[in-house]
Design goal:
The protein has helices at residues 2-5, 12-28, 32-48, 52-64. By secondary structure, it is an all-alpha fold.
Length: 65
Amino acid sequence: MLLSSAGIKVDMQNSASYIAGWLKALKNDPSLIIAASGKAQRAADYIQGINRKEESAKISEEVIA
């Protein structure tokens, strides 16, 4: 998703292999998706310069005001 938002084309053949690896890992440990998705979100936020704590604070301030 991050590559797409940056306009970077993805090699679908490599993507299929990547996804196959994840499917194998998830069959062994379904809870892995929770940890992996959280880390992926934090990495994407960092790359895009997004600070979720600051955004949450701004929203809270707007709701209170």
